[in-house]
Amino acid sequence: MFTTVQIVQKLCPGGIETMALDFAQYTQANERNFIISLDGKKSELLQHWPRLKNFSDKIICLEKPPGFSLKAILKLKQLLIDLESDCIHTHHIGPLIYGGTAARLVGISNILHTEHDAWHLNNKKHRILQKIALHIAKPTFIADSNLVADIAAEKLGNISPEVIYNGVDTDKFCLGQQADARARMQLPQDVKLIGCAGRLETVKGQEVLLEAMARLPSFVHVALAGIGSNEQNLRKLCKELDIEKRVHFLGLVEDMPSFYQSLDIFCLPSYNEGFPLSPLEAQSCGIPVVLTNTGASFETLCPDLGEIVKPGDSFGMANAIRKVNLHLSTQPNKESDALMHNEFNFASQKAKTRNFVKEFAAIEQMLNAYQKLKMQ
User: Fold this and answer.
1) Domain with CATH 3.40.50.2000 in the chain
2) Scanning 39, 245, 261, 282, which has its CA 20 to 30 A from the CA of 289?
3) Cβ–Cβ < 8 Å for 323, 275
4) Which fold has domain 178-360?
5) pLDDT digit string (tens) for 238-253?
């Protein structure tokens, strides 16, 4: 039985962590896949992310203390021995340092490292640590986008990253009936709905989307999926902008396909991103996307239907939202030949958006590419 051990910093809701769960979920019949979380207690992680309960027997929490911990490396080393590990797959710089070192101490040479963003390489300390970790671990270096590969090669030198795009399950994230999805999500039917999914933190830029909302007609609403420390500030901003009745805070959403299917547009207003999964998930459900030009976000966008704006530009975001969905100039449920024509075009656009994801970033492509590297 071939055993792969993934190592992440902390199993909290996010793109990296979702990818790790996907690997664990779609493990082949002759393979075991475990996930080691360096930070956090298992009981607390399970409580804050219900999806983890389906993977409870595959999750191990190291409970690493803050700062560098030699004890954590030694504990991780023993875990790799106990699990009879054949391949180590690290995600991001912290797991590379701990996982790569522990793997080499055990004598494991089959090490994959996925770099999910490159902004941290602008930090000199991070570059030095990454170079040291790469020298020790000598992993197969994988970038999740062309942008990350180019920056990593420039900043780190002497590496030739493999590029494997993160993939999404196009069977799970599929077309659906908007009215049914809104009923499941308890969202209003007679509005145009913009959705945003992500941690409610300043870096995710939800306040920019709210400011854009204030520039859009009153029948346009927004649904925010996620939790975080910035929620109260966002609610306060809604009151200041007099849009609180048009903004729906959904908290942590488990049924993400229904969330996307309920939307007219998906928006990602972040200030920083790597290669985000949420635009791919939304487009796989046939939903057009507006996102900010940060990280490799632009690589996730269907080139014919989506729009890109600069981070922090609420005026540009409002205009991009109008451009993506021409319905915003028409009241919902208004019967007219023009509106029916728009609906026909919109159905065609949904199919085109979904096909883009199926051809570009279906999960099967990602899994097959990683499987080949593991078995080399």
Assistant:
1) 2-167+363-374, 178-360
2) 245
3) no
4) Rossmann fold (3.40.50)
5) 999 999 999 999 999 9
